[in-house]
Fold:
Amino acid sequence: MKLFKSVSALILTVLLIVALNRSWNFGSPIPPLGKFLNPFGGFWQNAERKEIPDEAVRINGLKGEIQIIYDSLLIPHVFASNDEDLYLAQGFVTARHRLWQMEFQTHAAAGRVSEIIGKAALDYDRTQRRRGMVWAAEKAKLAMEANPVANTMVTNYTKGVNQYIQSLTYKNLPLEYKLLDYEPEEWTTLKCALLLKNMALTLNSGEKDFEMTNALNLFDKTTLDLLWPDNENVGDPIVDNTGNWKFNPIVLDSIPLAVPKELIAISALEKAQPDVGSNNWAVSGKKTHSGAPILCNDPHLGLTLPSIWFIIHLQAPGVNVMGASLPGAPAVISGFTDSIAWGVTNAQRDLVDWYKVEFKDALQREYKVDSAWRPTHQLVEKIAIKNSAPFYDTVTYTHHGPVMFDRLFNAEGEKNNFSLRWVAHDPSEEVVTFYKLNRAKNFSEYMEALDHYASPAQNFAFASVSGDIAMRIQGKYPVRRKDEGRFVLDGTNTQTEWKAFIPNEQNIVHKNPPRGFVSSANQYPADTSYPYYITASSYEAYRNRRINKLLSEMTEITPRDMMELQFDSYNLKASETLPLFLSFIKIQELTESQNLAYSILKDWDYENTTDALGASYYEAWWNALMPLVWDEIKEAKVALQYPTAFTTIKLIKEKPELNFFDILTTPEKETARDVVHQAFLKGVAAVDSWKAEHNQEPRWADYKDTYIEHLLRLPAMSYHVQHGGNREIVNASSRKHGPSWRMVVSLEKNGVRAWGVYPGGQSGNPGSPYYNNMLNSWTQGSYYTLQFDSNPTRYKAVLANLTLQPE
Structure:
């Protein structure tokens, strides 16, 4: 019996050791519990104290000693004696706080998520491979390596990241590696390029070619132009130059518009997120209290943890810059120096075209171009899958780009093949732009820096200590004929290819306008006199007009005024629609709860503040209205897109008898008035259902429920926050998107002053007090003063000193 007990205990011990040191999958993967729970090396070691000790680290390859001062927000102020050391230090210190985020995002960009989480990510990975993300990044990598400035930046940044990776043991791996049971791989310059291409995907992949092709075939050109106009004539474009364009534009030969006549079945391609956008503006010293220009920027991106941005201050001979950097790439993207400031918003332009491809046969080794057959290039993509055999996918390339949709992928009964032409596939050198912007002293150097910028297309606001303000809409834009780019193009005809790009000197620029400010909020870029044809998936219609109205009225502007404007929650769309909508309501037919909603809306001041009840009822009403109005589109069996809110409202006001207002499922003939009333009833029912479920009044912050989500969608590492605003509002915070970085810079001659905040913290470690320490300030519209001094001895509230020393 004793022997049996001893053997049984031994067997159980062995089984326990095996169990605790292997991964398990019960619906979702579980890490090896032995390693994960080990008090000396597991997740316990990821808990961090608020106090950080001073430290000296020896680094291979440094030319000199680097001093890094952490301020009270864990912002590193890096002081180096040369460019090589500066970017090596940036790579090292960024990886120190954001390594897992950096690597996970490059895996996502490259279509390698299945390696980490398994089969659930296979379709996503196939999409990324077929989109040509690695192909584009490899071309960008070669372009960067061929440019001495870019090569210095990315090579040394990569060295710094790898120096940090090499210092890691399991004990100090970021928590997510332990959760998912894998380890970081070597960082490469390709990964830097992948991150930049991933940002292009987020910002410049918007298009609606399939949807517009289907709309043209379902309706007619007149209806299409009514519902989806190229220019909605909202007013307040970024630049209103009233015909004062001093150049001779490129004019292409006209060709007939050839659009596929059949409906396209493809619908599963995820579209660019409509809540992605941004605000920026620069105000002349003539309008400010101090007499100095003020520049503001708040990019609207996904609200995620770890935070999208990493604040850093970089100082070396010739450079003294601070602002938001992109973890995984060198330089500062949105920021300021001791001479200038700049901020970016998305330019929205359509830089994606789809071509219908005709293959010779099912092997896809040849395709037709101008009545001749050309060879394709085929790449077999091996997609590694955690705990499964690899998946192999053959991707065919034409001279346009990758064939994303064919019989092997996302066919949905579709017999046609479609290749992708995208500006971001072309080699470019954006890092050179930021190298030069980070060192720019004046307007001319800002302009020279932007000459190197191609993708993703952005609106660059500018202000300088010398008093200049400017806006440049910069990117690589194909010259298009009227309607070109709106529909799927004929891939067998070389006449439909991009023939030229708008020269840099003909891109839209505005310097020191008489009104005393420049601004952009993703609206239409210029007045109709701009000689080039412009199209996009959508343009903003409300934030731009609200910002411009307030800036036009303001005088003696202070930085505090600008912070309040960034946090402005006035719902312009509601103010322009609600009085009319309420007049359509059949008051005598309302129930008690509907009467209550009517009264709340009638008394609402159009402010989407956290406590506003009217904001919740209006949002529910609007969400019910769109599918009722556009039921013809909702019920279509092919890819289509709703017209914009602005166009919908315009049609309600100007064409209330339009056939589209007739609801398909009823025998009656409805008008706009009827549909608005029915949407009101549905909206109230939705709010009543929410009230019953949550047992509380529908305060806007609760009803909207802004959610800052961890990249792995882990609730324990994510946060629900109380935040006002909404899409189409200056404080453009929806449920999962919003201001990812707020910055205000006063360009004063006796010293630049700056303030900033973002929804999270500098650390990517959920066990750190600096993971979310800025979150409350962000939700309340508060800012932190950004310490900015070229002298390391003058810093206050120093958290810690890190010294990097040559080995």
About this structure: Confidence is low (pLDDT under 50) at residues 13-19, 40-44. The radius of gyration is 28 Å. The chain is about 30% helix and 20% strand. Residues 83-110 form the longest helix (28 residues).
